[in-house]
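Q: Make up one entry.
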Amino acid sequence: MSLERLACEFWRLSSPYSIEAREEWKDLSTGQKWGIVLSATVQFALLTGALVDIYRRPKDEIRGNKILWTLASFVNFIGPASYFVLGRKR
């Protein structure tokens, strides 16, 4: 087996996107399901809070462009958190 084929086979088996590595919802434990639901809820709450704050806050109370902060808010956890920490003027 060539080195290239070996590397491809290794990637296929170790990739989280491979069919063998995927788990279905029914295969997850109750704790894993709660963890996914909790993190999705927190993400949605942060996103909603950031978008509402960006919309309601006057332009002069936000560091930078409102459109860029709106787009950045869609980056998981990091976007809304960075807006709340860096984007708002006190």
In short: Residues 26-87 form one domain.
